[in-house]
Automatic annotation (TrEMBL):
Pfam families: DUF1091. PANTHER family: DAEDALUS ON 3-RELATED (PTHR20898:SF0), DAEDALUS ON 3-RELATED-RELATED (PTHR20898). This is MD-2-related lipid-recognition domain-containing protein. The keyword ATP-binding does not apply. The gene is Dyak\GE23351. It comes from the Eukaryota. It comes from Drosophila yakuba. Transmembrane segments: none annotated.
Length: 178
């Protein structure tokens, strides 16, 4: 009986170590404005404070405000032999989804990854610059490893931002899940 309890404890310990070791690590971010007279990135970077604490910050200056029609195409890609589609490739009317958050739960999940660290917390019109400030790895760890169980690997979160039917910006966010 004592050996059985020790075996159960070892299995439990190995399971907990596996759960604790899952981590998101930011690897890169790339932001491109396709029409610099409409919008441009003032900054878009990862900042590493120490080995374990990194955060993402970006600011988009909007020059033709107010913006009343916004669509977002986002896709999740996993690196196999180059980046290949993985699970999601969705286009949504951002103004509509932000008015009715339950209309697209998948977009709601991904929007929730940066909502608390952004001033993009209301629906259209947008008459101010868009900021995502100091989005930490630890917050994404809670969201990605807690809610959904993604396999370990390297990922790309690709998003194209459309205003009035024209692609205005692309944000590529690279991270690894280990």
């Amino acid at each position: 009986m004592c050996k059985f309890i020790k075996l159960i404890n070892i299995i439990l310990l190995l399971y907990l170590v596996k759960e604790i070791s899952t981590a998101v690590e930011f690897t890169n971010v790339k932001c491109n404005s396709w029409n610099k007279t409409f919008a441009d990135f003032e900054y878009c970077h990862l900042k590493s404070i120490n080995r374990s604490f990194k955060y993402l910050s970006l600011k988009v200056n909007l020059y033709k405000v107010p913006i009343t029609k916004v669509k977002v195409n986002f896709s999740l890609l996993k690196r196999y032999n180059g980046y290949k589609p993985f699970l999601y490739n969705i286009t949504v009317d951002a103004c509509k989804v932000l008015r009715q958050p339950k209309s697209n739960l998948i977009f709601g999940f991904f929007y929730g990854l940066f909502k608390k660290h952004s001033n993009m917390n209301h629906t259209c019109p947008y008459d101010h610059d868009i900021i995502v400030e100091k989005l930490p790895t630890s917050f994404l760890n809670q969201q990605i490893t807690g809610e959904l169980k993604f396999p370990h690997g390297e990922y790309l979160f690709h998003s194209d931002w459309y205003a009035y039917g024209v692609n205005r910006a692309t944000v590529d966010f690279y991270y690894s899940l280990s």
